[in-house]
Amino acid sequence: MQYLEPRTDVPAKDDWSTRMILDEPWSHTEHKVISVIGIVTFVVCFFMPMTAGNIAAIVVLAVQLLMNVAGPLVGLAGRCAERRGLLDEPWRRLPATVADNPDEPWDLLLLDGLVLKGSLHDLPDMVLDRQEVFVCGPDAEGRAMVRAAGFMTMRPAEVDTGEYEAKERVDRPLGRPRDDPALQEVLGAAWAMKVILAIMVVIVVVIGVLVALSVSPVAPTGLVTAAILATMLFDVPAMIVAMRRQRRAARAVESSEQWTPVPVRLFPEKAGHHVAGVAELPGGPAVVRFPVPDRDVLANIAATGVMWTAGTHENLIAVGVPHLNSLTYAVVRSGGAAHDGDPMSWGRRLRPRQLLGLP
């Protein structure tokens, strides 16, 4: 089973997949502009008459600004490691296993003469299965960064001086996609899209209240805040389409009896183009588009040249990676496309997505 692996012959910060992790954008340009407008409006509120609309704007903008604070925290550990010089050295592939200590609140990795602990989330399962881990460090202060094959994440860890027993390795056969525990987690989280749509309904109600309170007496800050919230509704049509397709992908997984590897050649990433490629499907080569590109799935495809399909439903293909909690879908392009890319429509180019940074 081939997975994405970081390069071990160049400094870690120059490895393309590590660079993708470090450069992961926490917000796009449009979001940053709206955030600046929100901050300016929030400040102006305190110089305006304290009408009902102005007070409502202060409350709504305060909540929004608090939520925006979490954005820059994404990838903070990786950026700190890069500043400390920890990623100046290449990733080292080391034999490793996982400690069998359920009472320990941290995940523990047992390397040759070294124990690393940290909150590693899903990485230990892959480390236990492959009996290896990729490490940068530890430095003089005992801090290290770790990665596991397949995952587009790196986690901070530190040296531990305890002694632990190794957990017994359990074979993970390549069975039916719906029996994969990692994929079951994804399918079980389908309710998240419904929660997001419910939040959008709440936003519509808040917009209505803001406008009603800001009309009489007139509160410009309340109207501006309502306009800021309204920008969040631009993505609702695309979200509804994505939710329907994700349900079709889930049905495809439920009806599939096996994972199927399909050779794929991804088109080079370009601004104004979809993430797409040419797949060697059973019916012949076809252009497949990834409307909702998942970083883990696409990075594994880019690294291995293989797309793991978890089932099909009409012209939609469920795409994942065995033993990774990632699932997306690809749409077969019936009309074909240029062999060097899949251009977006002019409407989609008005609000382009951020490039992933694939090689």
List keywords for this structure.
359 residues; alpha+beta; six-stranded antiparallel barrel; six-stranded antiparallel beta barrel; 11 helices; 12 strands; membrane; transmembrane; transmembrane helix
Structure, explained:
The protein has 359 residues and is α+β, with helices and mostly antiparallel strands. Among the domains are: 12-16 and 76-160; 259-349. Helix content is 38%, strand content 20%. The chain has eleven helices and twelve strands. It has helices spanning 16-22, 29-45, 52-69, 76-83, 123-130, 181-188, 191-215, 220-230, 236-255, 295-304, 346-349; strands at residues 92-98, 107-111, 114-118, 132-136, 143-147, 155-160, 260-266, 276-281, 284-289, 306-313, 316-320, 327-332. The strands form two sheets. The protein has a six-stranded antiparallel beta barrel with strand order 1-2-3-6-5-4. It has a six-stranded antiparallel beta barrel with strand order 7-8-9-12-11-10. A hairpin with a 6-residue loop joins strand 11 (316-320) and strand 12. Helix 2 runs antiparallel to helix 8 (220-230), helix 3 (52-69) packs across helix 8 and helix 7 packs antiparallel against helix 8 (220-230). The longest helix is centred in the middle third of the chain and has 25 residues, at 191-215. The protein is globular and about 70 Å long. The model has no long low-confidence stretch (mean pLDDT 89).
